[in-house]
């Protein structure tokens, strides 16, 4: 029996750090409000000339080095992003060119917001298992600072820029790597977190720009409630499917949107907070980059050891959600 394993992980966060203190000079907020309501202390912000693809390339280069592979080895590239370089072509094709991934490779973007990395993981997992491709590179990369309304205190304090990447391969060894993966979506909540203009339903115009409709709009309370519900449900289902109890999971890497969402998940699953990897104090919510960024940090800091079982769980605009179980 074959398995699909994560052969390498890498991440990148831009140099520039924006603190809560600085934000309090831009909008009517305080470090205290942001920390207590969200758990965020600071976030990284990309340079003006640094695109989503540039961050993706940095994370991918690190992941390839970790996997001891070259870009020429990759035949499947999937980029999860809601902040692509441009609507056309896909950011994956731009990254393919920048990295030097061969022309025969399949390269495409997926749109699943903050759950995007887990969506990419499941797609690559299935494709590798059925022998359609040999080596997959999956990336979550976001320049959310380009779609945040810097005059809206309810959203601008929450988001940051980053990228994370993983290389996946198939191995002839059972019971390791991706043990399970489960995804879901509930479009009923589509209007709770959106960028209203710039697509085909509301093309860009002088009016849409004037109305600030190209920025993120969010109903924070509704998203919060849904996030706690779906993350708990999908985590439970994943453990049940694999006859696992919470104590058998060494580390949970949850989407990092709000520390109170993670604390609610911890309480509802009856898993102590020290089993949850948290770095949102330093990065804020980096959407699809969050899970691979946290995974990379957790591995490098020794929080993941061979044999450990890790649960990845995310939710995002859509409303999308997903979970994956990884045996190292
Ligand atoms: O990847 C998915 C992305 N999104 C999320 O996961 C977001 C989920 N939601 C949340 O994280 C929380 O709902 C927020 C952090 C966005 C907001 O926290 P909250 O406890 O739900 O606050 P609220 O929206 O109910 O606002 C409470 C008060 C309001 O004032 P009034 O109406 O009570 O006078 C807001 O105007 O806090 C005010 N407020 C702020 N005050 C200072 C909202 N943003 C700020 C701010 N600084 N930055």
Fold and architecture overview:
Helices cover 33% and strands 25% of the residues. With 328 residues, it is of the alpha/beta class. It has two domains: 3-174, Thiolase/Chalcone synthase (Peroxisomal Thiolase, Chain A, domain 1); 178-327, Thiolase/Chalcone synthase (Peroxisomal Thiolase, Chain A, domain 1, 3-Layer(aba) Sandwich), CATH 3.40.47. The strands form four sheets. It has a five-stranded mixed sheet with strand order 1-7-6-4-5, sandwiched between helices. Helix 3 (52-66) packs across helix 4 and helix 8 runs parallel beside helix 9. The chain is globular and about 55 Å long. The two termini are 17 Å apart. The mean pLDDT is 97. The site of oxa(dethia)-CoA (UT7) has 20 residues, from helix 2, helix 6 and helix 8.
Q: What's the structural blueprint in terms of helices and strands?
A:
Layout: E1 3-12, E2 16-19, H1 20-23, H2 31-38, E3 42-45, H3 52-66, E4 76-80, H4 91-99, E5 106-110, H5 116-129, E6 135-143, H6 153-156, E7 161-171, E8 177-185, E9 193-194, H7 206-210, E10 217-218, H8 220-241, E11 251-254, H9 259-269, H10 280-283, H11 290-300, E12 309-316, E13 320-327
Parallel strand pairs: 4-5, 4-6, 11-12
Antiparallel strand pairs: 1-7, 2-3, 6-7, 8-13, 9-10, 12-13
Helix pairs in contact: 3-4, 8-9
Bound molecules: oxa(dethia)-CoA.
């Amino acid at each position: 029996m074959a398995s699909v394993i994560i052969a390498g992980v890498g991440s990148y966060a831009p140099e520039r750090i924006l603190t809560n203190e600085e934000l309090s000079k831009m909008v009517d907020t305080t470090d205290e409000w942001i920390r207590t309501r969200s758990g965020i202390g600071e976030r990284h912000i990309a340079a003006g000339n640094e695109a989503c693809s540039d961050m993706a390339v940095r994370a991918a280069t690190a992941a390839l080095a970790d996997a001891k592979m070259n870009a020429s080895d990759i035949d499947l590239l999937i980029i999860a992003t809601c902040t692509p370089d441009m609507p056309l072509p896909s950011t994956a094709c731009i990254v393919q060119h920048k990295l030097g991934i061969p022309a025969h490779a399949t390269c495409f973007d997926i749109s699943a917001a903050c759950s995007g990395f887990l969506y990419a993981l499941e797609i690559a997992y299935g494709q590798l298992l059925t022998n359609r491709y040999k080596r997959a590179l999956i990336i979550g990369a976001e320049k959310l600072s380009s779609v945040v309304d810097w005059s809206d205190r309810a959203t601008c304090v929450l988001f940051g820029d980053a990228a994370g990447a993983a290389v996946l391969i198939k191995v002839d060894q059972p019971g390791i790597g991706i043990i399970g993966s489960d995804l879901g979506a509930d479009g009923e909540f589509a209007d709770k977190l959106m960028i209203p203009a710039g697509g085909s339903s509301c093309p860009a115009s002088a009016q849409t720009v004037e109305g600030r409709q190209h920025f993120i709009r969010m109903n924070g309370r509704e998203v919060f409630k849904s996030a706690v519900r779906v993350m708990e449900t999908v985590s439970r289902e994943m453990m049940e499917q694999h006859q696992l109890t919470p104590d058998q999971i060494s580390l949970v890497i949850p989407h990092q949107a709000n520390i109170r969402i993670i604390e609610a998940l911890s309480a509802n699953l009856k898993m102590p907070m020290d089993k949850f990897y948290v770095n949102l104090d330093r990065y804020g919510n980096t959407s699809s980059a969050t899970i691979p960024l946290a995974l990379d940090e957790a591995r490098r800091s020794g929080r993941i050891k061979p044999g450990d079982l890790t649960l990845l769980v995310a939710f995002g605009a859509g409303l999308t959600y997903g979970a994956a179980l990884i045996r190292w």
